[in-house]
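Hi Y.,

Following your request, here is the sequence exactly as I used it, all 148 residues.
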Amino acid sequence: MLLGENLSGEFVTAHVASLSWDEGKLVIELGSAGQPAPVLLTADGQVRQLRGGGQPLGIFPDAEPAAQRLEMEPGDTLLLYSDGVADARNPEAGYFGDRLADELASLAGESAAEVAAGLRRQLLEFCDDQVRDDMTLVVLRAGEPPGY
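Below is the corresponding structure, written out as tokens. Let me know if you'd prefer a different format.
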């Protein structure tokens, strides 16, 4: 549809996810088109960068999103974020993306709302409140499966 509109260089980046429960785990089928790779924070505080990428939608007619399946245990947290988060800049300390894993690990065990608020606070402090791009954070924390 985007290519048919002839938007001269306009494109869309996105994540799309399907969630279901399987044997006590939250299963996520995740598609990414032009977004930074998601990050998984396990309940025990480990941080794992997942695959990401895929091509943005609307540029190439044969663009394929990157797809992956993820199984989350109760207490695990998934972070989806825009490039504005990774590219937030501090002239003395570089890019926020370089310290994202450490900042996220410091929030292990917190609720999804607390992780989002904590990352926002850390990010704004890091870049001295000088926001240069849109910054989007989506945080999903796996709870207990239904019936437990």
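The chain has three helices and nine strands.

Thanks again,
Q.
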